[in-house]
Amino acid sequence: MSNVLVVDDEKSVRDILGALLVRNGHEVETAKEGGEALRLLQRSHFDLVILDLLMPGMEGLETLMRIKKSHAGIKVIAISGGSRAINMDFLPTSLQLGADRALKKPFDSDMLVGTVNELLGN
Alpha helix locations (H) across the chain? Predict the structure, then answer.
């Protein structure tokens, strides 16, 4: 069983992804922003982080860089629907900064579970 941290500012996304991962045999904790995620990473061991890139507070790209600096072995899946306000897609940048995979919202459950299993070697 793997430990997964889901980081997204939208509670509904955290709840849906968490339930999906638990159904597929993973332990899940959630955080609503980057600072909270980093605090959880200091207290607990995680095998994988699913990280939204657009959040208030500490945004996803900064969170990603900090995770990779302090917890280099943790796999990271970056997720984002892009920004309508500035018409930018941050997913390619997340890969350049160390994300192991990048998924554009909305994605289907099979894609997410397959990506998680691939990264965790399941």
Answer: 11-23, 34-43, 60-70, 91-96, 109-120
